[in-house]
Amino acid sequence: MAKIDENSVGIVETKTICIVQADSPLSLESGKTLGPIDVAYETYGLINEKKDNVILICHALSGNAHVAGHNSPDDKKPGWWDMMVGPGKGIDTNKYFVICSNFLGGCSGTTGPSSINPKTKKPYGLDFPMITIADMVKVQKMLLEKLGINKILAVIGGSMGGMQVLQWAIEYPDFMRAIIPIATTTRLNAQSIAFDAVGRNAIIGDPYFNDGQYQDKQGPDKGLSIARMIGHITYLSEKGMHEKFGRELKTAEDYKYEFNSEFAVETYLDHQGQAFVERFDANSYLYITKAMDYFDIERSYGSLKKAFAKVKSRVFVISFISDWLFTPAQSRAIVDALFANDKDISFCDIDSPYGHDAFLLEPETIGAFISGFLHAVHEPQAKQPQKTDSTRKKRRLRRLDDAIRTRVDYELIESLIEPDSKILDLGCGDGQLLTSLIEDKNIKGHGLELEQDLVLECINQGLPIIQYDLYQALKNCEDKSFDYVILSQTVQTIKETEKVFTEMLRVGKKVIVSFPNFAHWRCRAQLLFTGKAPKTKQLHFDWYNSPNVHCLSLKDFDQFCDKLNAKIEKKIPITKKRLAPVKLAPNFFAEQVIYVASKD
Amino acid sequence: MAKIDENSVGIVETKTICIVQADSPLSLESGKTLGPIDVAYETYGLINEKKDNVILICHALSGNAHVAGHNSPDDKKPGWWDMMVGPGKGIDTNKYFVICSNFLGGCSGTTGPSSINPKTKKPYGLDFPMITIADMVKVQKMLLEKLGINKILAVIGGSMGGMQVLQWAIEYPDFMRAIIPIATTTRLNAQSIAFDAVGRNAIIGDPYFNDGQYQDKQGPDKGLSIARMIGHITYLSEKGMHEKFGRELKTAEDYKYEFNSEFAVETYLDHQGQAFVERFDANSYLYITKAMDYFDIERSYGSLKKAFAKVKSRVFVISFISDWLFTPAQSRAIVDALFANDKDISFCDIDSPYGHDAFLLEPETIGAFISGFLHAVHEPQAKQPQKTDSTRKKRRLRRLDDAIRTRVDYELIESLIEPDSKILDLGCGDGQLLTSLIEDKNIKGHGLELEQDLVLECINQGLPIIQYDLYQALKNCEDKSFDYVILSQTVQTIKETEKVFTEMLRVGKKVIVSFPNFAHWRCRAQLLFTGKAPKTKQLHFDWYNSPNVHCLSLKDFDQFCDKLNAKIEKKIPITKKRLAPVKLAPNFFAEQVIYVASKD
User: Fold this and answer.
1) Is the pLDDT of residue A187 over 50?
2) Is the pLDDT of residue B388 over 50?
3) Is beta strand B592-598 parallel, antiparallel or unpaired with respect to B567-574?
4) Which of A47, B246, B572, B587 has the most CB atoms in a 10 Å sphere around its CB?
């Protein structure tokens, strides 16, 4: 009997339900029809009274309805996302009612090519109609409705599961309050189509494939295992694979000079291929990869922007920096389109070495993000309990160092902003300014931040936060699409300053900028009398480790605005001690300064 | 009849020669023996009187001896590197005598598994002994000696050809004056072994493989084409593939919802697979990929450093930034080991989107580098005719702008250096200082530079130049392995200054640093009286587009040396007009400064 850990959902049963009857078949995207349709699903946790705690999980290519726990006491392996789903886990079954169904075309209980074709009384094989991601999602929705669920908290899924998540949000925008597409894409690129095609070639070219009618004899095992091996290579990063296997030999010390698998990575692939053949159906593999290849939101809806205009839910996109199958760039395309549509979009590109499989292998990191986001969506009023690890503590202390400065800065900035405005905060840190502005001025805002820990803090506070290069994010915004674009205490550290400012002035009706004044009298005096690069409380780094790549003064910035044809609406030079603006010789006496500028 | 361009080598004949007789077979690395061995080869150009113009080209996995020209007037396709080899081309057959042979185990004329086994009078098939890169190189050397060639100018090869090149240089270090390994590695990483293993699995698992005895019947065509398809995906970059094919459909406008190839990239792979089956032998594919997998210089020689200690030739390593099969990091490992061994090593990581195949698809760029390098090796005294394109012209003009400053700087630096020293010039630009030092002081030196155009200029001048991050390069050097490490007019633009300086002081017996003095009176006066970030002839950028990330003065640098426990041996403050050092209040009057520092 398998040892079941105390945070497991325990023993669960896969249920099967008939969604579509034979006499009223489902119309598919291809124009064909299909019926009857059975759906296999599992649930974990309990639905609450308000019925507002339902989470739908969409599984990936080789997954199934069995997300968590064990199907029997003898079941050796738990469900495929057991690390993420359970009591107290990232998707907490003490709080949420979680449901997952095997998708249409699968081979784990839901109707697929290995099901019996009622017309022939034999398995469908290649007579099964082609299905698409949209068809899969349609069937999932029918299942939920059949279970009496008409509105859910969130749809979550990684990889091909993420495609279903996106399809859900576009096609049934009123059905959910949030979506979390992870390590996914709106359409495969040429390379991914190529890998899929080679896998299908291996299956269809296997002499035992027999046009898909192999159920009572040997099947295309070799072809299916080749396809799976290719898949597994694409799921890991080169680095991750090298760290895991290197060039290690499996058994011998020396080369055997023969063709049997010798390297550890070879026997790993042999094992993965073999294990897959034992649990998966080759025809399903063909249909599912084809559904992935066909998935193309741009094509289906005209453009990503048009497609995502329909979305009403909050969106949290997660990608992984080492994922080369569904790349961060593909996730950013989703983020761009939602951002351009003025949607409530958050994004984190998680620093993991595990490639595409990171969505299965980084439960702690992803768990923190997902649980924070779900909590903020589910109970927006309840403050999130802060989980502070040592790194974060250190960073917090470092920030406290700047706290006085920051506080002055933020209070003044807040005083400049009209209530109910739309704000973009560039380099928003832990979201302190945005939070105040939302609470005090009812603004609607987005933050941009690069540091993963700070992004998590924003997520925990329910702030829409995008982990993104400033310039790249600005480029995707429409002209004058924000009332204020804020760049606070960051101008001296950014590169390509002119490009960024030009974009800020284009995107914001007003631009608010604050920075330490390099021409403050203390700096001048230091350079003049000591002949050293200035170092003050505002500029407290040594020259050789300063993050400040620019030294600029009020006069410098005045001229810069002039060059960009920007109108300076306000210029508020301040010292640390006095919140009131410095009136006398500000370029000499101000320690920092806040500008409000605009450009028609 | 195919149209043969005027820069072609024309009609060439593949010759075959018997290298090893049946009665005195060759001992192979595996311990087995093989004989007889025939070798197929081609030559282009003429050998000169001195016999010092011979270039050996080593081909890659699917290549053969037919590098350039056409084998017959009806031959539709020229040789596999026709763009590179011919009159006036990158490898100029007007100057060089070029030879290439099909490697051992191949299927294009040289003895391989499809050759007749004298014992059975049938093709060897799997009775062919396992061969290694070392065996291939051994046979190549026997061929050259049989042709009366005992010393060659250079060995050149890309991909698996590059492995042979490395093997040549290590095993027969006196045989050549230079090597150019391109897009290669000292050993496959786990991911590449995995791809090879899947390809072999597809072949061996093909029911028509018949244990390698398929010559008189249908062979494992499906398996071989699957292997080739996988290979082709790895030869292109994701970006290159997406630009070439995108998601385009081959014929129809709409999805056909069927399993035949629909996307352009699918039909491309089908074609590549099919074409390969027609020209290549499946057994050879098995043996060759296995030879690649086994290749492991670290394993064979104890470590890369030990292996490359044997090298005597000049080395020019070329990689491509988008190559994810044999990555730039793998090339850098070669560079590191040669650099650590104090060899004459140059390196360029070429900016190309074409992935691994760039070595076949970027003939102009690579051609410029290779021809420059070969010329410098072949005729070190003859100045290279400068090919100046417009970009380079512009850059040259931009540099002329700084010329006066630079000249002063360089002349002073040169005066500080002892003859016959060993020098490392960090950020060496077009190599002006290094060239002078070599001519005037007979120094031995290496330059580091990041810009590809400047790297090419150094290559053209025959300078050992490495395109490399300063810190990464320094990290690989031994303590006190250079007499002087020079950082001229670059300190204000480098990041991680402290780390870099610490390494410089460790690696160099003396460190020479020059930079513009930020505390020059003009700067002080500007900040004091105008309240603007200083902008002078030495610091002539606006704050928002300055490449100078640090502002530092003599005093700053004095304190920095103090912090690093470095001894300041000389400090020479200078103004532009006066070459003589500034004696009065140098931190106030000096426009720039040169330091000589050291640390025990």
Assistant:
1) yes
2) no
3) antiparallel
4) B587
Tens digits of per-residue pLDDT, A436-489? 999 999 999 999 999 999 999 999 999 999 999 888 899 988 999 999 999 987
Do the Cβ atoms of B533 and A523 come within 8 Å?
no
User: Are A161 and A277 within one domain?
Assistant: no
Which residue, chain included where needed, has tokens 């007019």?
Answer: B489
Structure confidence by residue, pLDDT tens digits, B548-595: 556 677 777 888 889 899 999 998 887 665 555 666 666 666 677 888
Range of the structural domain that residue B299 is part of: 155-187+295-380
Contacts of B327 in chain A (CB under 8 A): 238
Give the C-alpha distances (Å, rounded to integers) separating A467 from A316, A328, A350, A406, B196: 11, 11, 9, 21, 37
A406 and A355 in one domain? Answer: no
What was the pLDDT predicted at B572? 86
Asked whether residue A366 falls in the same domain as residue A395, the answer is: no
Task: Enumerate the residues of chain A whose CB falls inside 8 A of the CB of residue B260.
Answer: none
The whole-angstrom separation of Cα A422 and Cα A445 is 6
Chain B residues with beta carbon closer than 8 angstroms to that of A269: 194, 197-198, 201
- H helix or E strand, kind and range, residue A355: none
CATH number of the CATH domain containing B527? 3.40.50.150
pLDDT at B81 over 70: yes
Residue A355 falls inside a structural domain: yes
Last residue of a domain, one of A274, A293, A312: A293
Residue at B34: amino acid letter: L
Which residue, among B5, B8, B3, B35, has the nearest Cα to B22 in the 3D structure? B35
pLDDT surpassing 80 at residue B163: yes
d(CA A426, CA A174): 31
Residue A508 structure tokens:
């914001």
Average pLDDT over residues B349-374: 96
Residues B181 and B325 in one domain: yes
The residue length of chain B stands at 600
Nearest CA in chain B to A283: B259
Report pLDDT for A495: 73
Residue A385 lies in a domain: no
Q: How far is B252 from chain A (nearest CA, A)?
A: 14
By C-alpha distance, the chain A residue nearest B207 is A207
Looking at CA atoms only, how far is residue B249 from chain A in angstroms? 11
Pair (B160, B233) in one structural domain = no
DSSP H helix total and E strand total for chain A = 21, 21
Q: How confident is the model at residue A400 (pLDDT cuts 50, 70, 90)?
A: very low
Tell if the CB–CB gap between A247 and B555 is shorter than 8 Å: no
User: Could you tell me if residue A214 is inside a domain?
Assistant: yes
Shared-domain flag, residues B315 and B373: yes
The CA distance from A427 to A415, in Å, is: 19
Please return the burial class of B378, using the count of CB atoms within 10 Å of its CB with bins 0-12, 13-18 and 19+: middle
Pair B134, B208 in one domain: no
Q: Are residues A30 and A59 in the same domain?
A: yes
- Which residues of B are catalytically annotated? 159, 323, 356
Task: Report the C-alpha gap between B50 and B390 in whole angstroms.
Answer: 38
Number of domains in chain A: 4
CATH code of the domain in which B50 resides: 3.40.50.1820
Domain stop point among A243, A273, A293: A293
A120-137 tens-digit pLDDT: 999 999 999 999 999 999
Q: Which residues of A touch B247 (CB under 8 A)?
A: 187-190, 193, 296, 299
In a domain, B385, yes or no: no
CATH number assigned to the domain comprising residue A258 = 1.10.1740.110
What pTM was estimated for this model as a whole?
0.92
pLDDT at position A29 is: 97
Q: How far is residue A563 from each of residues A550, A595, A600, B531, measured CA to CA in Å?
A: 17, 15, 14, 18
Name which of B257, B532, B555 is nearest A519 (Cβ-Cβ).
Answer: B532
Are A197 and B261 an interchain contact pair (Cβ–Cβ within 8 Å)?
yes
